[in-house]
Amino acid sequence: MTGIDMSSALEPLVGKRTAAALESLDIATVGELVRHYPRRYVDRGKLTDIAGLEIGEQATLVAQVEKSALRDMRSRRGKLLSVVIRDEKGATIDCTFFNGHKVQHVIHPGVRAVFSGKVGVFNGKLQLTHPQFEPFDEADEIRPFLSVYPATGKITSQQVARCVRQVLDVLDDPTDPLPELVRGREKLTDLGRALRRIHVPESEADIHAARHRLVWDEAMGVQLALALRRQATATRPAAACPPVPGGLLDAFDAQLPFALTAGQHAVGAEIAADLAREHPMNRLVQGDVGAGKTVVALRAMLQVVDGGRQAALLAPTEVLAAQHARSLRTLLGPLGKAGELGGAEQATSVTLLTGSLGAKARRQALLDAQSGAAGIVVGTHALIQEHVGFADLGLVVVDEQHRFGVEQRDALRSRGELAPHMLVMTATPIPRTVAMTVYGDLEVSALRELPKGRSPIATTVVPLAEKPSWFERVWRRVHEEVAAGHQAYVVCPRVGGADTGADADLVDTEDPDIGADSDDGQAKRPPMAVLEVAPKLDDGPLHGLRIGVLHGKLPPDEKDAVMRAFERGELDVLVATTVIEVGVDVPNSTCMVILDADRFGLSQLHQLRGRVGRGSAPGVCLLVTDMPAATTARERLDAVAGTTDGFELARLDLELRREGDVLGALQSGRRSGLRLLSLLRHEEVISKAQVYAQHVVADDPGLRRHPGLAALVGETVGDEERAAYLDKV
């Protein structure tokens, strides 16, 4: 059979039943099969002899099942499969499999397989307990490497390997999408050879060369997609808003009670230059907690208002939107009171527009936005609804970018004939590779310097597993801070009350990413909840203090009332979910207790503790956990306690999280095209691919002359996404 290419259907090649089984892996075409790479290899030259095994050794060996027997477990329900395996030299070792009934149909006498596991001892004899295993057939005997594939219950790795070899035997070499210039400069092997050698390698060098080439494919696919998005955005005209001497921005700068940092000046200059151009700005400003991003954003908004246009600030939650509106009005003072008694002559006005406003207030807010009476409009996702209109929207500021999808950003960016400028802010520092890969369609600026006057924050892990008595000390410390005239937060992972049913309902509706399972395999109780913790504190260790409750399920007016009471000092302690994670600014708050701190990510913990120490008094953050020492969860908490550098924690967070969760933000459709690309290991490749991609797209904006590269974008981030880019060009 000839003429088989990457788009060919699999069924004629592998049969109807096997093709159906492969669909459980989302594999339907030849291309999807050959892009289903081995997850590991067994080097037959490095296999261990059973006779040379030692206790504690991690061993990989080839052996044949000699005997197998299924028996009941003694101390609990279930079956054990006891197996004796023999290697080519005649030595034997026992293996034990839990849930033996699930593997007995595969591990039976006569089967040859690769077994991998840690060598232990039982009743004085060496054994492998629940080892990984991979059966193989005679064809594998002559190959130096055994390829082990991701598989499912419907198809084994061995069957996948057989299908791959069957397809490779008849597959025509694909047309190489990477330009010859790139392949030559980077010394990359041809695509056809790379695809064959990653599946059937003859040496370790084959594996490395093939993986390196295929990583390049994925990096180029991602960077081309981002370059296309950037190009499509840049082709739209935007309203130029150059600085206006003697305008509102100059008046604001003149009344600022503090000096801008060097970083704020530098980033402000970049933004000012972007706003003065006739193409839309698309800039990401990342800054650590307390780096002064709000002032930078406000100065950009005032420059646009000086140009006769409006600015919109989009926040992820109503609490944060209301907080932003109050903060902007406070910073502006008389300059934010247009039409009001005491307003400055050139003043503008700040309007809050959220989904929960009353009918009368909502009508007025919509009118202010539509008529242009409001120079600055602050709101939640309600701002991107079709019926919300603006007189002349010149700038969109998106706060906490990771809470919004690309589609939501584009909904605001695509309004009107002139594209508004776009400023994206995040207080979650982003590693360089993530910025290049996930936000590659944006220019990136960083605020690393903290304004003068910010107080230090001391962070301590409270390990209840080893030192339960410290829990009492936590609440004494809260009393001490309140007695000194300060306030405190107590943060819980979930709301509680009526949400104690399904796991999906355990967390605050505004905080959907908090997990309830341990990453160390520990059996865990339900996470602590605001509605359960608050009354216990009121009746117990914090009795006598004024305690408030705040979470995402409260009606918006109640949320606002609680926050205002806390800001005015009418509450001593606020028991809350992570609804306070970003944007909340109460300088008198000096203490934060985070219960079940192991349930949160590194960056989230860093964001939370940034709510204290915002005034002249030092802050303290207490991370309470019952996870034992020497667990991954405790390592994460120790990392947070060990540094206040958000950029360092962001990199650690990336190392500890699944990269697929980050890269998944790039993709659409049912199947991910990213299998080998690593944000941590492939920074140099990603950086080079970004440069090549920008050159290619600048020369060929629609990739009309590079159909192979256009197809690569589709394979990597999805055909729907690629079509969206090309339609805009």
UniProtKB/TrEMBL annotation:
It catalyses: Couples ATP hydrolysis with the unwinding of duplex DNA by translocating in the 3'-5' direction; ATP + H2O = ADP + phosphate + H(+). One of its GO terms (biological process) is DNA recombination. Residues 470-655 form the Helicase C-terminal domain. SUPFAM superfamilies: Nucleic acid-binding proteins, P-loop containing nucleoside triphosphate hydrolases. The keyword Chaperone does not apply. NCBIfam families: recG (TIGR00643). Belongs to the helicase family. RecG subfamily. This is ATP-dependent DNA helicase RecG.
